[in-house]
Amino acid sequence: MDIGSSIRAIRKRKHITIAQICEETGLSQGFLSQVETNKTSPSISTLESIAKALKVPLAYLLLQKEDRMKIVRKGERRITSSGSEQFKVEHLSATDKVRIVIVELPPGASTGAEPHAHEGEEVHVVIKGSIYAEQGEDAAEFHEGDSFSWNACIPHLVRNIGEETAVVLISIYTETDYQPDRL
Predict the structure, then answer these.
(1) What is the pLDDT of residue 66?
(2) What is the C-alpha separation between 9 and 48, in angstroms, rounded?
(3) What is the pLDDT of residues 40-84, one digit of tens each?
């Protein structure tokens, strides 16, 4: 765990000196310096007072780097293709269990000839165009601004029924950890 580096980074970002933290917490500068360089491990109560002085939740100091906010800039999105029609998939962001993608389906494109099923739950928002979605006995047409959701373990399909590329924002939740090579 690299708590010391987190403390130092937050302190510097907020333009707080070691002396100011020590004044508020009652800790010595030498001790705080050792904490920031990870040469000593503070107790939870000491971390709590440091977090309070930094005005951050204690839990934030305990987060591993990989559990913190992840940023994906527009120009850095991973782009793949999927389905028999090879429609474009832009991967916006993901956690271990949830991912968000934008899918572009050209006119007439479909997720397949037959409905398919897979693990997870999905929420869809039609950003542009018109699509037809089918799951079991349920089927409907959706247009810009419409949304729908389903449990993906029930066979389903989506087809672009418009004359322009349809753009759909999809949030996918799975029990198993996200694997970047899957849609």
Answers:
(1) 76
(2) 17
(3) 999 999 999 999 999 999 998 988 777 788 889 999 999 998 876
Among residues 131, 125, 106, 134, the alpha carbon closest in space to that of 168 is found at 125
Distance separating alpha carbons of residues 173 and 98, to the nearest angstrom: 4
Question: E strands along the chain, which residues?
Answer: 78-82, 87-94, 98-105, 121-128, 130-135, 138-143, 147-151, 156-160, 166-173
Tokens 């899957």, located at residue: 182
- Return the SS3 of 161: coil
Judge contact between 147 and 158, C-beta under 8 A: no
Cα separation, 183 vs 74, whole angstroms: 18
Radius of gyration of the chain (CA): 24
Pick the closest to residue 121 from 108, 107, 135 (CA basis): 135
Give me the pLDDT at residue 178, please: 61
Let me know the angle formed at the C-alpha of 58 by 68 and 34, rounded to the nearest 5 degrees: 95
